[in-house]
Structures are given as structure tokens and as C-alpha cells.
Amino acid sequence: MTEDRILSEITARRDDLIALTQDLIRIPTLNPPGRNYREICDYLAARLEPKGFTVEFIRAHGAPGDSETYPRWNLLARREGGQPGECVHFNSHHDVVEVGHGWTRDPFGGELADGKIYGRGACDMKGGLAASIIAAEAFIAACPEFKGAVEISATADEESGGFGGVAYMAQKGYFSPDRVQHVIIPEPLHKDRICLGHRGVWWAEIETKGRIAHGSMPFLGDSAIRHMGAVLEQMEHQLYPLLTTKHTAMPVIPAGARQSTMNINSIHGGEPEPEPGFTGLPAPCVADRCRIIIDRRFLIEEDIKDVKGEISTLLERVKAQRPSFEYEVRDLFEVQPSMTDESAPVVRTVAGAIAKVLGKHAEYVVSPGTYDQKHIDRIGKLKNCIAYGPGVLDLAHQPDEWIGVDDMMDSARVMALTLKELLL
User: Fold this and answer.
1) Last residue of some domain: 309, 335, 361?
2) Which of 75, 119, 257, 350 has the greatest CB tally within 10 Å of its CB?
């Protein structure tokens, strides 16, 4: 039976899956600044080309962050079947975030212990990348004359917006619906969940303006920090309570993200931070500038114009109360919410494979933060896209990040049976 052959091929590749995941973790593709992107693409090409995949290296020339020192390299591998048909594409980002503090294991060691592989990017999302490769190789070995094509991509910069990766490729037509029909992004959202999409996001910088003066005579100046304090007070007492009243029908996880949220990413005012090693005292000056970065996450039921309007209204309210108040708002980044319909072909097929492999109904969820589905949807105009992959989302970006081998094996089985249903 075809299904049994595919599952047997997966089982036989357990050690290979472990080794592949360890090798990927051991390539420290840190973003920022964008290290070792070409190295990981070369590694994957060396693996996939001998298996019959046609490999293309795609550099995102001109994308944010791309430079001769840190070029934004992406890999696309395509394996044609023996008959015409549709294309199933597995997209994983190869970049990882900074290591941070608190590790008890080597962040790039790929250590295997008690059925878990540890390392930065193990969960988010090199384990998912490895599982998709094993799934594709097992399916092709069991069903070499499949219809259509299987694609695997390893793309740059998802952790910083995806503009040097999926966004660039979508702009170049790699995710157009006439070329690719089904996309699975193996983000770590649990092996029994299908992620249909994500909330929206608006990042902005708010600057308050003042006038510099001697710190002993602050009445001759105008403190931008005090102005920002008034903004923050309004946010605390007016905006945050308003956001708690906005709820969504989207199945966002965790439950706390089923309402609108806003985070203040940073605040900077007055003199710059002293350089490391400086032992002197600051100069006595009134701050003439203060800036905050806000990260506003909004729901599919909200309009981006209203989201921005809430901030404008708040700032104008402060201005009415403070005669010398001046401000500026600069848009940094915005993404509309995205959610694939539960009736979409890739959703139904993956749900059926989860039922076969795990013996349970798939849970449908939405991510609190954005990922590269935003570019496939908005730029590529491809709606038949989901995130499905192994791993526990809460472990992403944490010290001692890990991925479970059994979870990767089960997800590889689900992915392989999905290929069977769509390409045979």
C-alpha cells in the first residue's frame, strides 16, 4: 500500500532527520546582521541536488539589510514529478535570532538529549525545515512518478520582516498561483495544529519635541521627555483600557492575544547613551527630543485607518492640554491580518493527514505575530497557504530552545501524506 511505503520511508530516516537538524543548527545564521546565509544554502544544495532537485540561489539585491558583507541569500529547490500536476511548496526561514543570555547548553551545538535537540533555531524553525526535507525525500522515494512538483525553500530574514526572503521572492513571481498551488510553512505551532494566519501589525515611531536648555534652568527649555510622559499617561489610562474591549473571532493563540494589544518597544530621550567604558558624568541639558517605538497588533475586524486614528486622537488630546506640545509620527512597518479559509485545499488535506497520523482532529489556530504568510498572501496573491510544523511556539527565541525528535517525525509523516493526497 502506498501510504504504508511512505510511512516506512519516514521511519527509516529517523537518524537522518536528527543529523540533518543538528547540522542546520550548527550553522549560526544569526539575524541581525545576517551571518552564514550562503553557507546554509550551500549545505542544502549539496544535499538536495543529488536527490534530483533543481537548485536556484536567489540573492535579494537591494532588500533591507542586503550588502556585500551580509548578502541576503535564499535557496529554492524543485523536484519535478513524472506527470503534469500541481506544485506543493514547503517554505522555511533559515535565519535565527540572537542567542541571548541564560543558556545551559551550547546554542549552536545541536545537542541530542532525552529525545530533544537543543540549539538556537531548533524550534524556530530549523526542525521544521528538516522535517519538510525528510517528508519530501521519503515521498519521492516511495512515489517517484508523482504528479506535479515539490518545492523546498530556505529563505532569509523572516525574523526581521522577511523582506530579504519571501517578500523578495514573491515580488519576483516565485509564489504566483500559476506557479505554486499549495504552500506549507513549517513554523513551530504544534504538530496537531494548523495555523490559518496571523493578526495585523503596525509599527510606528512617535517623537515629541522640546527645546534644549541648561539643566539648572529647565524653565528656559522645554522637556520633550515630560511631553512624552504625558503621552504615556494617556496610553496607560485611555488607550490600553480601550484595547481590552476589542476582541476577535479569529482563533488566536494564546488566548490573551484574542484582543488588540500594543507594546512599547523602546524609549529614547535626551542625551545618547554613553559609549562603553565612559566613566564621566552626563551634561546638564533639557531633552529636546524623545522617541518611542510602538508595536500595535490588530485584529481582522479592525481597519488600519482606525488603528492609526486612535494614536492621532490621543496625541491631539495631549496637544490640547499642553500648549507647547509638538510631535511627529513616522510609519515603520504595517501588515494586514491574514487568514486562510478552513475549506481551502491545503487546510483540508493537512487536517486529513493529522487525523491519520495522530488519530485526532486538527485544531485551527491563528498566530499572534506575523510570519511569511503575509508576503505569500499580499504580494504573491496566493491564498492557499498555512503554517504547519513541529515544535512548541513558546520555546521560540528562548534560552535552551529545543525541538522534539518524535514531534518532527510525526510532522514529517503528516507532510508526506499531504504530498500523497495532493500529488498522486
Assistant:
1) 335
2) 119
pLDDT tens, residue by residue, 337-368: 999 999 999 999 999 999 999 999 999 999 99
* Residues 29 and 45 reside in one and the same domain: yes
Report the C-alpha gap between 92 and 88 in whole angstroms: 13
* Complete DSSP assignment for 235-262: IIIIIHHHHTT-B-SS-BSSGGGGB-EE
Of 137, 151, 158, 407, catalytic: 158
C-beta of residue 402 within 8 angstroms of C-beta of residue 118: yes
The one catalytic residue in 9, 66, 95, 137 is 95
158 included as an active-site residue: yes
Please say whether the beta carbons of 201 and 370 come within 8 A: yes
List of residues 6+ apart from 325 with CB closer than 8 A: 208, 227, 230, 318, 319
pTM value is 0.90
CATH number, position 260: 3.30.70.360
pLDDT digits (tens, 9 = 90+) for 189-207: 899 999 999 999 999 999 9
Q: Which three cell numbers stand for residue 30?
A: 544569526
Nearest-angstrom CA–CA distance, 137 and 416: 9
Strand-pairing partners, residue 212, are none
Which residue segment(s) compose the domain that 409 sits in? Answer: 2-198+337-423
Pick the last residue of a domain from 300, 319, 335: 335
Q: Quick check: 140 and 51 in contact, CB under 8 A?
A: yes
Q: Strand runs (DSSP E) across 50-156, as ranges?
A: 54-59, 73-80, 83-93, 112-113, 116-118, 147-155
Do 180 and 298 lie in one domain? The reply is no
- With helix as H, strand as E and coil as C, how does 365-413 read? EEECCCCCHHHHHHCCCCCCEEECCCCCHHHCCCCCCEEEHHHHHHHHH
